[in-house]
């Protein structure tokens, strides 16, 4: 495969509703859309999930653009690529970190590769599911009653799991009230690193509510304190921000830091490492699920493809486009029926990026040629 052209676009989409977590509120979504083209003009697409500010991790839209432009794209445009795995394993291996930037261009190459092979991205990755189960993530609301109302709406739409964002002061009382209203629904809590071991008693109190898991309660780069907390908690801890690689996962499991792992393509550097992490967890009987980063339809399509692998046994965050955007940039948009999404079978990501809509939301773009 020879990449002849790369197009970077900075897009901005307005969220239908503000989305609040323990580290802040998002009102809109700035992101980098990556398009790669081969000698025949066929395109592969992916997006960076880096945020405008370094809140989830240290990467941002601006730093991703720099790394893509100055380091990753020259590699992609210079080399003949036999298989997308070569990018993460060979060509990008000497460059530290910058996982989201790596994942963005690697994902576009994966999409192009699948199209050249005339197979779906899910098939190219080894996925064998025709449908995937999906849950929904609900941000911090102005009141508990508003949260309960939103849960009811999402359950009526068929979502198979509810994830609630929590933080100190918005946790036990919230979960208690939700369990009074919905005692049996699959429910989990996501702290986005908002707690310390000083909050252990408060976190252990969540054991009373039969949660599927508590996601990343402690520091974003920690696996040691999580092991101490997991030893006290009956509820499984799921690690998110702490896991960037199979090696991170190996160490976390050896310490007993978690019982579940969330796989985010951008956080671990791309689809190649995501698949390796999936395989490692499957071999060690650790269930995984696919987390979300408020992606546009292009990113959601990649999430759907990776979730078709067999060890994604828990519903992920890949909800319908219509929950977040007035209009998405793909056709058709991602839809959910009875809590499931049908995995596309057409070549590549299986959704068609709309150039008209992409141009509508593009703030800036630049084209690079071999």
From TrEMBL:
SMART domains: MR_MLE
Catalytic reaction equation(s): (1R,6R)-6-hydroxy-2-succinyl-cyclohexa-2,4-diene-1-carboxylate = 2-succinylbenzoate + H2O
Top EC class of this enzyme: lyase
GO terms of molecular function: magnesium ion binding; O-succinylbenzoate synthase activity; racemase and epimerase activity
Keyword list, A-Z: Lyase, Magnesium, Menaquinone biosynthesis, Metal-binding
Biochemical pathway: Quinol/quinone metabolism; 1,4-dihydroxy-2-naphthoate biosynthesis; 1,4-dihydroxy-2-naphthoate from chorismate: step 4/7; Quinol/quinone metabolism; menaquinone biosynthesis
Cofactor(s) recorded in Swiss-Prot or TrEMBL: a divalent metal cation
Annotated EC: 4.2.1.113
Binding site for Mg(2+): 190, 215, 240
Sequence ranges assigned to domain Mandelate racemase/muconate lactonizing enzyme C-terminal in this UniProt record: 144-236
Keyword Protein biosynthesis attached: no
Pfam families per UniProt: MR_MLE_C (PF13378), MR_MLE_N (PF02746)
Active-site feature positions: 165, 264
Gene Ontology BP, a term: menaquinone biosynthetic process
Task performed by this protein: Converts 2-succinyl-6-hydroxy-2,4-cyclohexadiene-1-carboxylate (SHCHC) to 2-succinylbenzoate (OSB).
Similarity comment text for this entry: Belongs to the mandelate racemase/muconate lactonizing enzyme family. MenC type 2 subfamily.
Family matches, as NCBIfam families: menC_lowGC_arch
Identification of the protein by name: o-succinylbenzoate synthase
Species of the source: Neobacillus cucumis
The organism's taxonomic lineage, starting at the top: Bacteria, Bacillati, Bacillota, Bacilli, Bacillales
């Amino acid at each position: 495969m020879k990449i002849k052209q790369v197009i970077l676009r900075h897009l901005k989409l307005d969220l239908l509703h503000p989305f609040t977590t323990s580290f802040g509120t998002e009102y809109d979504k700035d992101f980098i859309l990556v398009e790669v083209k081969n000698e025949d003009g066929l395109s592969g697409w992916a997006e960076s999930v880096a945020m405008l500010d370094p809140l989830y991790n240290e990467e941002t839209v601006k730093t991703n653009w720099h790394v893509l432009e100055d380091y990753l794209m020259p590699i992609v445009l210079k080399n003949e690529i036999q298989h997308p795995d070569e990018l993460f394993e060979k060509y990008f291996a000497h460059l530290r970190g910058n996982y989201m930037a790596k994942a963005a261009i690697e994902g576009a190459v994966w999409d192009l590769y699948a199209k050249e092979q005339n197979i779906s991205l899910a098939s190219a990755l080894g996925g064998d599911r025709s449908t995937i189960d999906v849950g929904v993530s609900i941000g911090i609301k102005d009141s508990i009653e508003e949260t309960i109302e939103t849960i009811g709406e999402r359950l009526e739409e068929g979502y198979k799991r509810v994830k609630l964002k929590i933080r100190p002061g918005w946790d036990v009382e919230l979960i208690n009230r939700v369990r009074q209203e919905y005692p049996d629904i699959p429910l989990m809590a996501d702290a986005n690193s908002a707690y310390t071991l000083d909050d252990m008693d408060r976190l252990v109190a969540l054991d009373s509510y039969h949660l599927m898991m508590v996601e990343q309660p402690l520091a974003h780069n920690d696996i040691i304190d999580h092991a101490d907390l997991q030893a006290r908690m009956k509820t499984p801890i799921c690690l998110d921000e702490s896991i960037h690689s199979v090696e991170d996962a190996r160490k976390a499991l050896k310490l007993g830091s978690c019982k579940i792992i969330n796989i985010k393509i951008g956080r671990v550097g791309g689809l190649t490492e995501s698949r390796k992490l999936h395989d490692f967890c499957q071999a060690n009987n650790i269930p995984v699920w696919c987390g979300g980063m408020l992606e546009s339809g292009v990113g959601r399509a990649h999430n759907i493809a990776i979730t078709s692998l067999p060890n994604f046994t828990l519903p992920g965050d890949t909800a319908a486009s219509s929950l977040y955007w007035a209009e998405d940039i793909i056709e058709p948009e991602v839809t959910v029926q009875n809590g499931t999404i049908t995995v596309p079978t057409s070549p590549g990501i299986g959704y068609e990026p709309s150039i008209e809509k992409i141009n509508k939301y593009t703030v800036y773009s630049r084209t690079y040629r071999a």
